[in-house]
Design brief:
- It is a single chain.
- The mean pLDDT is 93.
- The longest helix has 19 residues.
- The protein has 238 residues and is α+β, with helices and mostly antiparallel strands.
- The chain is built from 6 helices and 8 strands, in the order βββββααααβββαα.
- A hairpin with a 3-residue loop joins β2 and β3.
- 35% of the residues lie in helices and 25% in strands.
Length: 238
């Protein structure tokens, strides 16, 4: 319905448009992912200043017209995450997290828990930028897939339910598989299994550490599960 919209939002992406405008992709708790144009924001005297940049948490005022593209009419900063912005590792980690979220939840459906997950991740990176890591990305993506309803099954064989002899991962089956159901799977060792189980079950602040081989294998399991069950293409972590 056309008219004014007020919502909290996190800026996922900000793109230059025309001579002075920007197109924003934002994520909101009750309207999901939205796109909006901020007119004149790149002019030196813009009332928005620099607050429409990626990773700002805002109270946004929008005007919804007939097109899918809303218009930004007001913005108030809730959090600018200044420490995150000053740390290259944390900044890159935030960018990849926002990209992953925008791909998995690319609609206007309400998912307040996903908005809260994103805000928690940005808060953590701002308070503890040393937490930025590939392990953090794996854990964040697993939690996104859990919220989307297609997190990989890790507790037992996704095909027969067997809890022992887990030797592979099958994206088609949606999780780990045992030696009797390994057809169509790729090799999946116990170290990677344990890492993914811990990363999914713990908070982001308690994300376990892992070596590059484990991270790459976990990333493959996540990416192929997202592609098979959610038709989502995630960028490789490493």
């Amino acid at each position: 319905m056309a008219g004014p919209v007020k919502t909290e939002a996190v800026v996922l992406r900000s793109m230059r448009y025309g001579e002075a405008d920007r197109i924003l992709n934002v994520y909101t708790p009750m309207r999901g992912k939205l796109s909006a144009i901020a007119k004149g924001v790149r002019r030196s005297k813009s009332r928005f200043g620099g607050r429409l940049e990626p990773f700002f948490r805002l109270n946004l005022e929008l005007h919804e017209g007939r097109s899918d593209l809303m218009t930004v009419t007001g913005a108030e900063t809730v959090s600018a995450f200044p420490v995150l912005r000053a740390d290259e590792g944390a900044l890159n980690c935030a960018a990849r997290a926002c990209d992953s979220l925008g791909r998995v939840f690319d609609s206007g459906e309400p998912h307040p828990e996903v908005f809260n997950l994103l805000c928690s991740a940005l808060n953590l990176l701002d308070q503890h930028p040393e937490q930025a890591s590939d392990e953090f990305q794996v854990a964040f993506r697993l939690k996104l897939l859990l919220a989307a309803g297609f997190a990989p099954q890790l507790g037992s064989c996704a095909t027969c339910g067997e809890a022992e002899q887990i030797i592979g991962f099958s994206p088609a089956a949606g999780g780990v598989v045992c030696n009797a159901c390994e057809a169509g799977s790729f090799a999946f060792d116990s170290e990677t299994h344990q890492f993914m189980t811990a990363a999914l079950g713990r908070s982001l602040a308690q994300t376990p550490q892992a070596d590059g081989r484990v991270i790459a294998l976990a990333d493959r399991a996540i990416s192929e599960t997202a592609a098979h069950h959610g038709q989502v293409r995630l960028k490789a972590i490493a």
